Amino acid sequence: MMGLGISLVRVLTSSNDYYSGSFIAWLITAALGFLVIVYRLINWHKRASQKWLKAAAKAKKQVWKKLNVPRSGHLWIEDLAYGQKQPSTCCVCLTSLVLPYNGCSASLRSDFVHRCVVCGAAAHFNCSEFAVRDCKCIAQAGSSHVRHHWSERWFNMDENPEMSAFCSYCDEPCGVTFIDASPTWHCLWCQRLIHVKCQAKMSKESGDVCDLGPLRRIILSPLCVKEVDGGNSLSLITEEIIASSVRGQMRRKQRSRGKHGDDHPVNGKLQGATTATRDLDFVLNGFAGLNRSSSDIDFHCLKKNGRIKYTLNGLMHNKGGTAICGQVKKYALADLAQDARPLLVFINSKSGGQLGPILRRTLNMLLNPVQVFELSDSQGPDIGLELFSKVRYFRVLVCGGDGTVAWVLDAIERRNFESPPPVAIIPLGTGNDLSRVLQWGGGFSKFDGQGGLSTLLQDIDQAAVTMLDRWKVNIREENSEGYMEREQSKFMMNYLGIGCDAKLAYEFHITRQENPEKFSSQFVNKLRYAREGARDMMDRACADLPWQVWLEVDGKDIQIPKDCEGLIVLNIGSYMGGVDLWQNDYEHDDDFSLQSMQDKMLEVVSVCGAWHLGKLQVGLSQARRLAQGKAIKIHASSAFPVQIDGEPFIHQPGCLEITHDEQVLYSFSYNALDAHIRGLADGSLLFHGTPNLIVHVFAFLLDDPLTLETPDTAPCHLNF
């Protein structure tokens, strides 16, 4: 870098314009000097932080037995050694995770490490099995209170550090390397920070009792979780554990032992190896379903990038701090506090940007891992809902797209809860239209600049509750003679489309199924949608829709425009990633009512092809409003693509009948409600298409359940 700067200086100073060249050369030299200073400051800060980590680890080792905190072994998964907001220091040997350690050559460096899915600590492959049992214990039923579980601050859990980087006892700054401050611990339950020198004082005054912090209402307290015998037919809680191949670990151990002998580093010191190596000739990928014993686990082989690894769903521990193949543990809930409103979390790791694994690990650290579930083809929402079946009041958080939300709602409906849990959303899908109308945002990136997941969870705790219409779609297919051959039912919350928009969704869906790894970005997914739209502009496959499809609303035939290539039935005011097709805020020359997602009415609009959809996306055009009603029938004399809430399929000749099914509860962002109220106060905002204001006001003023009477409906129990 310095050589390049000198060369640039020589070239510039040789210019005829002496003064101009000298000034530019001076600027470049100053910039290079500034970069060198910044680089040295960053390195100094890293060294100081690592020194503090070692001091905090040493202090914890000295007083760990006196803390008398329930402990558990770590649950390791194989993960990248580097990444944003990831620990960079091994929790065992206290050396760098990304650089060769203990004298190893750079050729032995691995880009993968073991990372605990519960507390977030990380360790080298060679070190993880020698980690001490210092992970937080998720089941402490029988204890009188929760104690602070102090741990080294391997990384900054708070995404808004300037708000809470102070000692919870003395209120002095934590983690400021420019002053002579004490090393810092943080609690794995309440996320508070404390100076090591302040912990003993606080313990004498308060007994080290932890109140679970600002998220206490939605955290499933470990005092309410108990471990039950494997033979009991209670709920089985599973955690996915992905470890590296045992053979690979043996080879790495042999290389390490050949260089360092038979000793292994533990918390910065060497300890003799005491764990016998097990040579397994199989790999595990087990799913422990509800009411299944550990003997029922299925075994499968799993290979990826030429490396064999074993996975096992289940919480498992050995006598050390390492997750191994063993007995699957079962948990049950009991004795919840009266004001507790625990949050049940479902994560679809395949939705949208495929951020599920990172999101799950972070939520495990902020909440109790027992309340966090990952959805997959083999595990649906039922296992989590079964665990919470005896919890009277709780909330649900769905991390995924609109299809994932519908999946969870179907499972909730089958349970027939006395007080159905309201659902909040972390949008991970492509369009996220339902999340938009409920003010949870159109993508996960929204939360990066607003305090991160900690702030989001506080918003969920304070969220209001609103109603949303849910519609039943009866799909009838007919033969050439007009007789019904097959009938099935689906449910709709957002919209239903037939024609050009459904064709785009169907082609996108097929492409994603063939190459799912290419759809890891929401932005790229939208570009692929645009590409499919460009293709449709050329072939116009749905140009004959007005002659093949006829529309019936509340028993009346509705004329379809001749230039129509698609019909869209709307329940909410967001389509295709935020497009408002009904446009309540504009003046129209028709007599239709304002759109609302809780009025038991549907709206029907038409679009004129992929080019029209593109103009709608950028706000250069409007959809044509055709009808509004409570019962809609769409008849088709030929096969057409159809999508229901983004799930596309080919509908054979027949009929689509849409009728009202029920109203479901959703959590509505409290911050958005506050903005609505301010808008109403100054007259700048009308409450069109948004939830009932009275519901919101009661939602955040009352802590007890509320029974709300809505027009033409039975009493609806709301829980807050």
TrEMBL record:
<keyword id="KW-0862">Zinc</keyword>
<keyword id="KW-1133">Transmembrane helix</keyword>
<dbReference type="Pfam" id="PF00130">
    <property type="entry name" value="C1_1"/>
</dbReference>
<protein>
    <recommendedName>
        <fullName>Diacylglycerol kinase</fullName>
        <ecNumber>2.7.1.107</ecNumber>
    </recommendedName>
</protein>
<keyword id="KW-0611">Plant defense</keyword>
<keyword id="KW-0067">ATP-binding</keyword>
<keyword id="KW-0418">Kinase</keyword>
<dbReference type="InterPro" id="IPR002219">
    <property type="entry name" value="PKC_DAG/PE"/>
</dbReference>
<keyword id="KW-0346">Stress response</keyword>
<dbReference type="GO" id="GO:0016020">
    <property type="term" value="C:membrane"/>
</dbReference>
<keyword id="KW-0812">Transmembrane</keyword>
<dbReference type="GO" id="GO:0008270">
    <property type="term" value="F:zinc ion binding"/>
</dbReference>
<dbReference type="InterPro" id="IPR000756">
    <property type="entry name" value="Diacylglycerol_kin_accessory"/>
</dbReference>
<keyword id="KW-0547">Nucleotide-binding</keyword>
<dbReference type="Pfam" id="PF00609">
    <property type="entry name" value="DAGK_acc"/>
</dbReference>
<keyword id="KW-0808">Transferase</keyword>
<dbReference type="GO" id="GO:0006952">
    <property type="term" value="P:defense response"/>
</dbReference>
<dbReference type="GO" id="GO:0007200">
    <property type="term" value="P:phospholipase C-activating G protein-coupled receptor signaling pathway"/>
</dbReference>
<dbReference type="InterPro" id="IPR046349">
    <property type="entry name" value="C1-like_sf"/>
</dbReference>
<dbReference type="Pfam" id="PF00781">
    <property type="entry name" value="DAGK_cat"/>
</dbReference>
<keyword id="KW-0472">Membrane</keyword>
<keyword id="KW-0863">Zinc-finger</keyword>
<feature type="domain" description="Phorbol-ester/DAG-type">
    <location>
        <begin position="73"/>
        <end position="135"/>
    </location>
</feature>
<comment type="similarity">
    <text>Belongs to the eukaryotic diacylglycerol kinase family.</text>
</comment>
<dbReference type="InterPro" id="IPR016064">
    <property type="entry name" value="NAD/diacylglycerol_kinase_sf"/>
</dbReference>
<dbReference type="InterPro" id="IPR001206">
    <property type="entry name" value="Diacylglycerol_kinase_cat_dom"/>
</dbReference>
<feature type="region of interest" description="Disordered">
    <location>
        <begin position="248"/>
        <end position="270"/>
    </location>
</feature>
<dbReference type="InterPro" id="IPR017438">
    <property type="entry name" value="ATP-NAD_kinase_N"/>
</dbReference>
<feature type="transmembrane region" description="Helical">
    <location>
        <begin position="23"/>
        <end position="42"/>
    </location>
</feature>
<feature type="domain" description="DAGKc">
    <location>
        <begin position="338"/>
        <end position="477"/>
    </location>
</feature>
<keyword id="KW-0677">Repeat</keyword>
<dbReference type="InterPro" id="IPR037607">
    <property type="entry name" value="DGK"/>
</dbReference>
<dbReference type="GO" id="GO:0004143">
    <property type="term" value="F:ATP-dependent diacylglycerol kinase activity"/>
</dbReference>
<keyword id="KW-0479">Metal-binding</keyword>
<dbReference type="GO" id="GO:0005524">
    <property type="term" value="F:ATP binding"/>
</dbReference>
<comment type="subunit">
    <text>Monomer.</text>
</comment>
<feature type="compositionally biased region" description="Basic residues">
    <location>
        <begin position="249"/>
        <end position="258"/>
    </location>
</feature>
<feature type="domain" description="Phorbol-ester/DAG-type">
    <location>
        <begin position="147"/>
        <end position="210"/>
    </location>
</feature>
